[in-house]
Hints:
Blueprint: E1 2-8, H1 12-23, E2 28-31, H2 55-68, E3 72-74, E4 78-83, E5 87-91, E6 95-103, E7 121-122, H3 125-128, E8 136-140, H4 144-153, E9 159-163, E10 179-180, E11 184-189, E12 193-198, E13 201-204, E14 207-210, H5 217-224, E15 228-229, E16 232-233, E17 246-248, H6 259-279
Parallel strand pairs: 1-2, 1-6, 2-3, 6-17, 7-14, 8-9, 8-14, 9-10
Antiparallel strand pairs: 4-5, 5-6, 11-12, 12-13, 15-16
Amino acid sequence: MIYDCIIIGKGPAGITAGIYLKRYGYEPLIIAKDGGALEKVKDIENYYGIPHITGPELLKVGENQAKAFGISIKAEEVLEISKELHFVITTNEQTYEAKTVILACGTSRNRYAKADQFEGVSYCATCDGFFYRKKKIALIGNGNYMAHELSVLENICKDIMIFTDGKPLEAEISSSLPVVLEPIDRILGNTHIEAIEAGGNSYPVEGCFVAIGNASGFTLAKHLGIGLNGNSILVDENLMTNIDGLFSCGDSIGGLLQVSKAVGEGAICATSVSNYLKMHKS
């Protein structure tokens, strides 16, 4: 099945976009492993018509509303987006195809402050892996997204060490790969990363790739070559990125990080996608 639109993210922007698209007569699919930053919000008092609600409560109400319209929501982790004849979305469970895609997965949540000051640190194996061929590199992460980045790096780099930073290894990887399970104490180097200290040991490295948690909108955008402004996705007045048929809204595009803004942009984005699909009937 080829969906009219796959929406990545089930926060206010993604759910609103899905509801509007369904009401416009299209078949959207929403994919999200979790509810993002809103899951941790304890009190919302500035959203129109609702004097008080928690983030998890608002997420649940929105998800139930979408399901009542018959919108399918998959609790899966998106690992990669590619574009062939249509968009192909790869998750930890399966692959999906869509004519259009909306990135509504919030702000970047997988930055690694300990490493960001150094050169030689990347958040995109597809983008930068080639520059570290035949070099000794570190890969920080412990889940499916880390394993996906590893599958890219293994074809380029022959000396890879996994650092889970104190978290249990949740992904299946080759037993021959060295894995450091202890928390990372610090990262050493002048301007360029030179070593990682963990568990009282120092491990020399020439480069480092960060793949913590899930692939954020930022990391998915980098893999696709979407224009970025810092950690925000660049869009035009129709909320479309520089990739034809790929849109973004909500916290992913920066600005005021509020529920009201996300809901409004979800509606605008869905309208833009509807107009796009009308113009590209196949």
